């Protein structure tokens, strides 16, 4: 096959490149955040009955307790995807089409393996997981039915992540966005249909939210598959590329394992905070769940920017373009600061109105508003940390990213939250642990940035090679 035309990551002005590649990802991830919120929003309106009081509160709590496993699924997808992005973009930068094609093919094999793991968990581990967090029979019933469907039917989720990362790494972020949007819109439209039982269908409640989710994921996978095989010309396709290649998988997980560990810390943090807050009151757990999903409206665009910067920086590193590596970091930090500043302003002005759309008790709404306003104080540090973590991953140093995540999610955050809630019995102050942890991680990230720049970027020769 003839070599592809010049890759746009080679010479496009960096400011324009970051914007054009990240904007579709930001939009698609905003929609992703929206339909995650919609799940909780719709189930909060599940009506109470004589047998089940405060059904909406319990439904939101069930989704909050299920959230750590969902985040673990995302961690495995995202971490593996980071490895795929970094390795694939690096081979493209070196103009090695054959190895790039093996990376893309092995991405599909790894997606199947990850699905198998979570399918087994869904069949045999869901009930035990929920019993560690609650003994309420209604919350247990809601949560088990929801999570079991989301895990055993996650093949659409895993398949889409593989196609998404291949498209992103080859610079086709608009096609990736189209696949993401198709599933998100499907999920949003089907949520009320299955939860409340429209068009002659039975009302499935919380389980209906899970059904809508997996159908949306299957739609995204289907669209991603079609656009990759028909429109993505940066890599070759064929069964021989899908066969597991030990060397390629090793390269992917050299970057991917630290990234999985890093992303898994979100799951650990969510589970730990559920236990810490649950020791105070279940209403704090429900408020935390609503807060975290609302926060994603701000953080998801930052992660979309990060997902664009990883292949951009990885391509420049593979091409030994020291100037463009520096530019990618500079524009990334600038753009993420704008995103986070806008998020802080929106929270300070509109938090009560936003939280009020959830049909939960006034006490839960008040706690959620207070949490948003306290935690947003650290958002500028959060944004910088996200960009710097992606920068480290693109240069092949996932360990630095892991260290930053450890500081953000566990080492500083959880001990401080536990002291405030369980030792000092000041649950209303537990939220201050979040901005403190982000500040500590940012200071450490600056030190590591200086080290990695000296060791990996400065030694690169200034070479401008033509890209066929």
TrEMBL record:
Membrane topology: Multi-pass membrane protein
InterPro entries, alphabetized: MATE_fam, MATE_MdtK, MdtK-like
Major localization class: membrane
Pfam families given in the database record: MatE (PF01554)
Role of this protein: Multidrug efflux pump.
Subcellular location: Cell membrane
Species, as recorded: Wansuia hejianensis
Top-level taxon in the UniProt lineage: Bacteria
GO cellular component terms, semicolon-separated: plasma membrane
Transmembrane feature ranges: 67-88, 100-124, 144-163, 175-199, 205-231, 297-319, 331-358, 370-388, 400-423, 429-449
Keyword field: Antiport, Cell membrane, Ion transport, Membrane, Transmembrane, Transmembrane helix, Transport
Protein name per Swiss-Prot or TrEMBL: Probable multidrug resistance protein NorM
One Gene Ontology molecular-function label: antiporter activity
Family classification: Belongs to the multi antimicrobial extrusion (MATE) (TC 2.A.66.1) family.
Biological processes annotated in GO: monoatomic ion transport
């Amino acid at each position: 096959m003839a070599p592809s035309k010049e890759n746009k990551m080679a010479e496009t002005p960096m400011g324009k490149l970051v914007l054009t590649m990240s904007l579709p990802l930001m939009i698609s991830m905003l929609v992703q955040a929206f339909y995650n919120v919609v799940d909780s929003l719709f189930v909060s309106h599940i009506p109470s009955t004589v047998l089940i009081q405060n059904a909406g509160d319990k439904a939101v709590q069930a989704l909050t307790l299920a959230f750590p496993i969902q985040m673990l699924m995302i961690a495995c997808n995202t971490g593996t995807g980071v490895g795929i992005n970094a390795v694939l973009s690096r081979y493209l930068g070196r103009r090695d089409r054959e190895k790039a094609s093996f990376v893309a093919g092995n991405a599909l094999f790894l997606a199947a393996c990850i699905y198998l793991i979570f399918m087994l968990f869904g069949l045999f581990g869901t009930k035990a997981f929920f019993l560690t967090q609650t003994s309420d029979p209604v919350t247990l019933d809601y949560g088990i039915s929801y999570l079991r469907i989301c895990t055993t039917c996650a093949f659409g989720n895993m398949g889409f992540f593989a196609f998404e990362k291949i498209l992103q790494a080859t610079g086709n972020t608009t096609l990736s966005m189209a696949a993401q949007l198709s599933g998100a819109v499907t999920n949003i439209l089907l949520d009320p249909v299955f939860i409340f039982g429209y068009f002659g269908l039975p009302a499935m409640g919380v389980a209906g939210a899970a059904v809508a989710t997996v159908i949306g994921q299957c739609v995204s996978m289907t669209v991603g598959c079609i656009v990759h095989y028909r429109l993505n010309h940066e890599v070759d396709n064929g069964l021989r590329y899908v066969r597991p290649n030990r060397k390629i998988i090793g390269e992917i997980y050299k970057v991917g394992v630290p990234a999985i560990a890093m992303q898994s810390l979100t799951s650990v943090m969510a589970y730990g905070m559920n236990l810490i807050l649950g020791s105070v009151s279940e209403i704090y757990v429900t408020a935390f769940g609503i807060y975290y999903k609302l926060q994603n409206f701000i953080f998801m665009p930052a992660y979309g920017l990060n997902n664009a910067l990883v292949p951009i920086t990885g391509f420049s590193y593979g091409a030994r373009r020291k100037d463009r590596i520096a530019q990618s970091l500079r524009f990334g930090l600038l753009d993420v600061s704008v995103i986070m500043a806008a998020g802080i302003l929106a929270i300070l002005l509109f938090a009560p109105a936003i939280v009020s759309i959830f049909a939960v008790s006034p006490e839960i709404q008040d706690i959620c508003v207070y949490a948003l306003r306290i935690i947003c104080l650290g958002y500028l540090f959060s944004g910088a940390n996200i960009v710097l973590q992606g920068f480290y991953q693109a240069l092949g140093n996932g360990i630095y990213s892991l260290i930053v995540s450890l500081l953000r999610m566990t080492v500083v955050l959880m001990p401080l939250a536990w002291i405030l809630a369980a030792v000092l019995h000041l649950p209303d102050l537990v939220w201050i642990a979040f901005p403190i942890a982000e500040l500590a991680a940012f200071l450490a990230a600056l030190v590591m940035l200086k080290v990695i720049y000296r060791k990996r970027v400065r030694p690169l020769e200034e070479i401008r090679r033509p890209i066929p």
